Amino acid sequence: MTTHAADAGRPADGAASARTAAPVATPPAGAVPPRAANDARAALARTRVWDLPLRLFHWSLVAAVGTALVTGELGGSLMEVHAAAGITVVGLVAFRLVWGLVGSTHSRFLSFAPTPARLAAYLKGRWQGVGHNPLGALSVFALLGFLAAQAVSGLFGNDDITFTGPLFELVDEEVAARITTLHKQFANLLIGLVALHLAAIVFHRVVKRHDLVKPMVTGWAEVPVAELPPAPKGGGVIAFVVAVAVALGAVWVANGGPWKAAPVAASAPPAAASGWGGASTATEAERPAAATADAPGTPATGTTPGATGKPASPAW
Predict the structure, then answer these.
(1) What is the pLDDT along the chain (316 residues), one digit of tens a residue?
(2) Are 144 and 61 in contact (CB under 8 A)?
(3) Which of 92, 67, 70 lies closest to 147 in space, CA to CA?
(4) Alpha-carbon distances of 56 from 39, 50, 60, 140, 285, rounded to whole Å
(5) Hey, what domains does the chain have and what are their CATH numbers?
(6) Chain mean position to CA 311
(7) Which single residue of 129, 187, 203, 273 has CA 20 to 30 Å from 295?
(8) Membrane-spanning residues where (predicted)?
(9) What is the 3-state secondary structure (H, E, C) of the chain?
(10) CA 257, 58, 189: angle at the middle one, nearest 5?
């Protein structure tokens, strides 16, 4: 049998049939094609992250801490402002501690607590979530604890010049002096923590292209559709009222509370000695005049004409 040149490059009929009949692999039911999965990851959706009370707390804390740092460095007459800023920090930290228990989902401590498993997943690049990442959570807890200690220590401080803390009288002078020294030294550590916090924000913005400031202003964040979390819950009006009440109580205690001495009332002039029945007793100089007025043959008291012919004033 002769093979034509035109047929030399063609496979045999059996081979062609086998190649044509080869089954095509199909994805299992419910599987997402790779391209569709990539599109879902690339697509972004808005989700509510930070509630209004948390945002108000955050920016109020920024203002209070900034004021405390500046006035503490300048000193002098600004120490009263420094003290007010410190007491404000006490109230704000108290509010955050309560809001971390009763606030909305992403404000609660349990939602972003830096557990070992979460830290390991984050360091390996496998962590997914909304809100504080595990390293950011460590920064949050460190700042809250340090701010609480720094603000409370200032309540017992005394610089022997222009400032005395509201709770200074509750401790010995030696203890107050040590607390004051620690308060001044820890101020530098606080500046370092704030600088580290700001550096982390800049790193996320420049390197990771992740804006952390905008969600803290608007409350909304953009996340991949595949990572979209459920809508946050909790943090209603009752929870807010409870947190505010605790914060106001903390401010009251920090400002002296039940230990604050009441102002001493001005002493009134001593009253004249009273006789029986509450009538004022006449002085030795008044007694002869009273006796003369009551003697027989003299006019009644208050009707004796004087040199000008006007009635005399009563003796009482």
Answers:
(1) 444 444 444 444 544 444 444 454 554 444 445 454 455 556 888 899 999 999 999 999 999 999 999 999 998 889 999 999 999 999 999 999 999 999 999 999 999 999 999 999 999 988 888 889 999 999 999 999 999 999 999 999 887 777 888 999 899 999 999 999 999 989 989 999 999 999 999 999 999 888 999 999 999 998 888 888 888 899 999 999 999 999 999 999 999 988 876 554 555 555 544 444 444 444 444 454 444 444 454 444 444 444 444 444 444 3
(2) no
(3) 92
(4) 36, 10, 6, 16, 74
(5) 50-256 (1.20.950.20)
(6) 74
(7) 273
(8) 56-74, 81-102, 186-207, 234-254
(9) CCCCHHHCCCCCHHHHHHHHCCCCCCCCCCCCCHHHHHHHHHCEEEEECCCHHHHHHHHHHHHHHHHHHHHHHHCHHHHHHHHHHHHHHHHHHHHHHHHHHHCEHHHCHHHHCCCHHHHHHHHCCCCCCCCCCHHHHHHHHHHHHHHHHHHHHHHCCECCCCCECCCHHHCCHHHHHHHHHHHHHHHHHHHHHHHHHHHHHHHHHHCCCCCCHHHHHHCEEEEEHHHCCCCCCECCHHHHHHHHHHHHHHHHHHCCHHHCCCCCCCCCCCCCCECHHHCECCCCCHHHHHHHHHCCCCCCCCCCECCCCCECCCCC
(10) 80
Tokens read off for 132:
């504080």
Amino acid at 87: I
Q: How many residues does the chain have?
A: 316
